[in-house]
Amino acid sequence: MTAKEDIFDRLGRSAFRSRFRLGQKERAYAEAKGRDTIAAHARDFIAARLAPAHPRNDGRQTPMRGHPVFVAQHATACCCRSCLEKWHHIPPGRALSPDEQAQLVDLLMCWIDRQMTVDPRSHS
Cα–Cα distance between 8 and 13 in angstroms, integer? Predict the structure, then answer.
């Protein structure tokens, strides 16, 4: 099992994490903007809101909805530094490396890609 498969497996067993789905508005936004733009937004959000050693408003910096990346951040436990520590074993109090940021963006985009291929009426 790859590291990404492992995290998706663990997240899938969490009642809280597994309840997240892209809503109609987030899906429409992702379709309208395209994958490259959404990935650029993910990079920007991670760099500004999660990568600093002590992010502003940590624990409250990621809205629950309104953008596909925000939903993905909660679904994948990439929403705050305490979730990064608990789920991804990334310690708080130090800035995220460029490699860590890239791995988180990859995870977010993988989750979004999966959501975009699921029928929104299903609960899969």
Answer: 9
**Helix axis angle, 24-33 to 68-75, nearest 10°:** 120
For the chain, helix (H) and strand (E) counts, in that order, are 7, 0
Q: Determine the Cα–Cα distance for residues 19 and 56; give it in Å rounded to an integer.
A: 27
Contact 92, 81 (CB under 8 A): yes
Distance CA(107)–CA(4), nearest Å, equals 7
Helix (H, G, I), strand (E, B) or coil at 39: helix
Q: What's the pLDDT band for 44 if we cut at 50, 70, 90? A: very high
pTM value is 0.91
